[in-house]
Specification:
The complex is a heterodimer.
Chain A lengths: L1 E5 L2 E3 L5 E4 L4 E4 L3 E3 L1 H16 L4 E8 L4 H10 L3 E6 L8 H15 L3 E5 L10 H9 L3 E10 L4 E7 L4 E7 L2 E5 L11 H9 L3 E4 L9 E7 L8 E2 L5 H15 L4
Parallel strand pairs in A: 1-6, 1-8, 6-7, 7-13, 8-12, 9-12
Antiparallel strand pairs in A: 2-5, 3-4, 9-10, 10-11
Chain B lengths: L5 E5 L1 E2 L2 E2 L1 H17 L3 E6 L16 E7 L5 H14 L4 E5 L4 H12 L3 E5 L1 E4 L5 E7 L4 E7 L5 E5 L14 E7 L7 E7 L13 E5 L9 H11 L2 E4 L1 H5 L20 E5 L5 H7 L4 E6 L12 E4 L2 H15 L1
Parallel strand pairs in B: 1-4, 1-6, 4-5, 5-12, 6-11, 7-11, 14-15, 14-16, 16-17, 17-18
Antiparallel strand pairs in B: 2-3, 8-9, 9-10
Helix pairs in contact in B: 2-3, 4-7
The chains are: A alpha/beta, B alpha/beta.
Chain lengths: 255, 323
């Protein structure tokens, strides 16, 4: 059993970012982290490996040099191998291109089960998982909050879709996108972290087809700023609650 | 191909057209009018159980996909691909729900055109170009993209990004078969129905959220009561979910849901960037926190510096008194 995990490296939540090139780009402070939902996927893969020693886990990343950060983390958490598909800056914004490149790499690397996060926290698109499955002609299960494998031919997953849950059964090969609840990403051990630092990823060249996008990036913009907060003063909670409701109703026409 | 026809994917819940779909239909209507084309609503599953008035008089035509229930993603993709290849629309719009995000990326691959998720703004420019806006990095920035020639424009629209409107059309309904070509690869074993009166977090016009400052899981009954009075949904911060006080489905933030209600009330939430990323696009934000330096106040319109366990009961009582 070979589990391939797709890992994206995204700016850390605390990383400073600003608009550059007159709106054409984003300058990001060099603080990276493994995408939260991909970390869940890695954890789940490693958990399965711990239960079934014959399982091999390979982490795959696409993008420029900084994506090595995410690969290191995946190896530190327990992935056996790392694959780096080299790509250009800015590829984070084009899911179809990323999915095409990743599915090509997956054909090279081989897989029975593919795991990845349900979305990345940088572009928030949530497209790559199902797209990779379509390129490879395999089924996918998205938003999995639970995944059980007993070593047999089929797996059972629970999809947490917010307003309802769904329990599904499927056979391999397949792709599953990880949602919160699937696993809780571990903090790597010191030995794991060392392994991550030393890891030498296998390098693959991307079969990129630049310029085929039917959407062109125009610019980045700041969202509208909220004005300074208006604090409702006073000592009596009841008076403050009354005043809050009055403002919401009379001044803001809410409620 | 008819000039500028717009298709909208319509979702139902409990036999009713979902609010998010009505929002997308409204936006689709405006676009179709600007382009001089027609608006077509596509629905899967038994159309007979849907009240067509739920479509708000917006579409000119309804295509009802008939087949085995509502179909899984591969079934929807195959059917839509067939329809699109026959008569390509100018754009296909769908509400950006987990179910849409299950099939639209696969359709994008089939058609070889990029799709855009989480669209919050749309503008038709001269020469028939379309400019769309979407949040990235959890709403810290917006990115604007412009459509190039060729292919239907595939757009998943963020819930509550566009206002609902009504029209006066009575659409004609056509049926189209949705048949599986092969065996279903993903078999649904069990579907937990949503509870009556359930308000989906991303659809709610009012969200009341609680954080650590609530003091413990038992205090959330106050939030539930407030949500019930206001007809809103309950949300939670990450630390509250991680502590097991509330279910993960209620989490608002970077690793949970993104919400943009008319009113977001944060009780005992400190305002870590994780949380802000999921609610900063709300129209009006009220923060209640006993720490005057809590970061949440930098992202709020109105604030009360006090213990939530004093303010919440007072709010509930005041609301009850007036109704």
């Amino acid at each position: 059993m070979h589990i391939a995990v797709l890992v994206k490296t995204v700016p850390d939540s605390e990383a400073r970012m600003e608009i550059s090139d007159g709106g054409r780009g984003l300058r990001v402070e060099e603080k990276w982290e493994l995408n939260y939902f991909d970390a869940i996927a890695v954890e789940k893969a490693v958990k399965i490996k711990e239960a079934f020693p014959q399982v091999k886990v390979t982490a795959i990343a696409y993008g420029p040099r900084y994506v090595l950060e995410g690969l290191r983390k995946a190896v530190a958490m327990g992935a056996d191998e790392a694959v780096h598909v080299e790509g250009k800056e800015g590829s984070w914004l084009y899911p179809l291109r990323a999915a095409r490149v990743l599915s090509q790499a997956l054909r090279d690397v081989g897989f029975h089960l593919i795991l990845c996060g349900r979305k990345a926290t940088d572009d928030d698109s949530g497209q790559v998982g199902p797209m990779v499955a379509e390129f490879l002609g395999i089924p996918h299960v998205s938003w999995a909050s639970s995944l059980e494998w007993d070593g047999g031919d089929s797996l059972v997953a629970v999809r947490d879709l917010g307003d309802h849950k769904e329990k599904v059964r499927f056979s391999l090969p397949a792709l599953v996108t990880a949602h919160k609840g699937l696993a809780e990403p571990r903090v790597p051990t010191i030995q794991g972290t060392m392994r991550g630092m030393r890891m030498q990823p296998r390098k693959l060249q991307a079969a990129e087809e630049p310029g085929t996008e039917n959407w062109k990036l125009v610019r980045f913009a700041e969202p509208p700023r909220r004005p300074q907060v208006r604090i409702i003063e006073g000592d009596d909670p009841r008076a403050k609650a009354r005043e809050l409701l009055r403002i919401l109703r009379e001044e803001m026409s809410l409620l | 191909m008819e000039k500028g026809s717009i298709w909208v994917w319509v979702e139902k819940a409990d036999g009713k057209v979902r609010q998010t779909s009505q929002e997308v239909l409204s936006q689709g209507r405006s676009m179709a009018d600007e382009l001089g084309g027609s608006l077509l609503a596509i629905m899967a599953g038994p159309v007979s159980e849907v009240n067509l008035e739920d479509l708000c008089g917006l579409p000119d035509q309804v295509i009802a996909l008939e087949g085995d229930g509502e179909g899984g993603p591969s079934l929807i993709v195959e059917t839509l691909e067939e329809l699109i290849r026959k008569d390509p629309p100018w754009a296909l719009l769908a509400p950006g729900t987990p179910s849409t995000m299950d099939w639209m990326p696969r359709l994008s691959v089939r058609l070889g055109v990029e799709m855009v998720s989480d669209v919050v703004g749309m503008e038709l420019l001269e020469g028939g170009r379309l400019r769309v806006k979407r949040p990235v990095h959890g709403g810290r920035f917006l990115v604007e993209m412009e459509s190039q020639e060729g292919g239907p424009r595939l757009l998943a629209i963020r819930p509550r990004a566009f206002a609902r409107k009504t029209g006066s059309r009575s659409p004609r309904v056509e049926f189209f078969p949705m048949k599986a070509r092969g065996p279903t690869e993903v078999q649904v074993l069990e579907k937990a129905q949503r509870e009556k009166g359930f308000v989906d977090l991303s659809e709610a016009s009012i969200v009341v959220s609680g954080g650590r400052g609530m003091g413990g899981p038992e205090a959330f009954f106050l939030l539930e009561e407030l949500a019930a009075i206001l007809g809103g949904a309950v949300g939670a911060s990450r630390s509250v979910v991680d502590s097991g006080w509330r279910p993960a489905s209620e989490q608002v933030g970077k690793s949970g849901r993104s919400v943009s209600p008319d009113l977001y009330m944060a009780f005992g939430i400190s305002g870590a960037i994780h949380h802000i990323m999921g609610m900063d696009s709300s129209k009006v934000v009220v923060a209640v926190n006993k720490d005057p330096n809590a970061l949440i106040f930098q992202h709020a319109d109105l604030g009360i510096v006090d213990d939530v366990n004093h303010v919440l009961p007072a709010l509930i009582e005041e609301l009850k008194r007036r109704s």
